[in-house]
Amino acid sequence: NPVLEPTLRGMVSTTNSVPITNATVSIKRVLAGRGAVYVFDAPDCNRQAMTKADGSFAFEGLAGEAKLEGVVTAPGFELQGFWRVEPAAGPLQIKMLPAPAGDNSQQTVLGRVLNADGKPVGGAKIQVHTLHTERDWHSGGGFAYTDQQGQFAYRPRENIIACDFTIEANGYVP
What we know:
Blueprint: E1 8-14, E2 24-32, E3 37-39, E4 48-50, E5 56-59, E6 68-73, E7 80-85, E8 92-96, E9 109-112, E10 125-132, E11 137-145, E12 151-154, E13 162-168
Parallel strand pairs: 1-8
Antiparallel strand pairs: 1-5, 2-3, 2-4, 2-6, 6-7, 9-12, 10-11, 10-13
């Protein structure tokens, strides 16, 4: 009997269940070994799938039955993440929020992640832990990922003065 390779299937839609066409679904990290550490360099990392007209997507022929983390991007919508997803658990349902209206570049945190040799670090996770607003400091901010040039853009849902974040990348100490 042939061994069936795992497949992750899912659906991307608005919060009102309207399918989103041409959204990009990306696997960013895979739980390694016995489930202790997520890595950025497993064979399935950085695989991408585009949603069809009905919002569906599929990653066929995954390397193994591991838990996955990733992100979904679509023009006009906020970046949406998924965590601890097991392909065998059934189709993944992803609901996306519309992006904030207007172009407030003063509220966009731009950055670039480089290694000690000055080379870009692609696929690094920028985890925002604390936001400083005019009212207070509070937890919860969201996240972003670097592109292949090591660049990222994070746009919070509210006006901020500052934010605290950590950067995680496979093979690097945070």
